[in-house]
UniProtKB/TrEMBL annotation:
PANTHER family xref list: 5'-3' EXONUCLEASE FAMILY PROTEIN (PTHR42646:SF2), FLAP ENDONUCLEASE XNI (PTHR42646)
GO biological process, any: DNA replication, Okazaki fragment processing
GO MF annotation list: 5'-3' exonuclease activity; 5'-flap endonuclease activity; DNA binding
Recorded superkingdom: Bacteria
Species whose genome carries this gene: Domibacillus enclensis
Domain 5'-3' exonuclease: 4-264
Alphabetically ordered keywords of this record: DNA-binding, Endonuclease, Exonuclease, Hydrolase, Nuclease
DNA-binding keyword on record: yes
Any Pfam family: 5_3_exonuc_N
Signal peptide: none
Biological role stated in the UniProt entry: 5'-3' exonuclease acting preferentially on double-stranded DNA.
Protein name stated in the entry: 5'-3' exonuclease
Length: 300
């Protein structure tokens, strides 16, 4: 392992969470140009709260690049039921990406893929780098592999639950790489795929602990109760589709390097951005020298 630390951030997860933390009370933090900024300000606060704990030498924020992906190509109903984003959030999508760059952070997104896939692709290549994934999405737990951590945001700022592969095994009784099989069986209402009707998380976990994979479940279905056999038989086609939708793809054709992700701190762009968009609440993050340890004798 090197002395580097890499933080991979699920940008949209932080942005949406930040928006809905303050939106119910009507706190949209509208600037002089009439643009709401609550989601962007919250996202930066969440990001640096975690970064101050982790002290990463490298940071990349990963973005979704539109609603159309290879998953919607496979399954028309994937995320199709989700309501349109609130009008106060829409102008903050582009503003969030601008903020990331203004704070000296690296951002990336690839058309036809989700941020999860970009995070998975980068993380899978970092066997020699201590890697942290910051998200509010439990799906990313499937990426735990022994050299990384998934930090799941909790309510409030600076609160998260940190998972490594060991804690995941302890809580779920399966390997992280098996988690997408569980999601395939139980479905995901938020993402719009049903899994097997009538099978919830508890039963799905029990089945994967016993049979290992969805294919194993189908092959061993004759040993299960008539009720579960019937559900699996009727839901087999959707189960196979749900498995494809639930699995994070770690082979995204992206251009990324540790050099690009190096975080050396903020600069004049940060102050200009804060002033231009009326985000004085972020001023305390504007003077940052990064987290890398600097050799005072200049020998590094």
């Amino acid at each position: 392992m090197t002395n580097d630390k890499l933080l991979l951030v699920d940008g949209m997860a932080l942005l949406f969470r930040s928006f809905f933390q303050t939106a119910p009370s009507g706190r949209f933090m509208i600037n002089e140009q009439g643009v709401p900024t609550n989601a962007v300000q919250g996202m930066i606060r969440h990001l640096f709260a975690a970064a101050d704990e982790i002290k990463p030498t490298h940071i990349t924020v990963c973005w979704d690049m539109g609603k159309d992906t290879f998953r919607t190509d496979m399954f028309d109903s994937y995320k199709a039921h989700r309501p349109a984003p609130p009008i106060e959030l829409i102008p903050q999508f582009d503003l969030a990406q601008e903020a990331v760059l203004a704070f000296g952070l690296h951002g990336i997104g690839v058309k036809n893929y989700e941020a999860d896939d970009c995070i998975g692709t980068i993380s899978s290549k970092m066997a020699d780098v201590e890697t942290y994934i910051l998200t509010g999405d439990r799906d990313l737990l499937q990426l735990l592999n022994g050299h990384n951590y998934v930090w799941l945001l909790q309510s409030g700022y600076g609160n998260w639950k940190s998972y490594d592969a060991g804690l995941f095994r302890e809580e779920y009784g399966i390997e992280p790489a098996q988690f997408h099989y569980v999601k395939a069986l139980m479905g995901d209402a938020a993402d719009g795929y049903p899994g097997v009707k009538g099978i919830g998380e508890k039963t799905a976990l029990k089945l994967i602990r016993q049979f290992g994979t969805t294919e194993g479940v189908l092959q061993g279905a004759h040993t299960l109760t008539p009720s579960v056999q019937k559900k699996l038989k009727e839901g087999e086609e959707m189960l196979r589709m749900s498995e494809k939708l639930a699995q994070i793809h770690c082979d995204v054709p992206l251009e990324w390097s540790m050099e690009q992700a190096m975080f050396t701190g903020t600069d004049d762009r940060t102050f200009s951005f804060i002033e231009a968009h009326g985000m004085k609440g972020l001023s305390r993050f504007a003077r940052h020298d990064g987290y890398a340890e600097v050799d005072p004798f200049g020998l590094d």
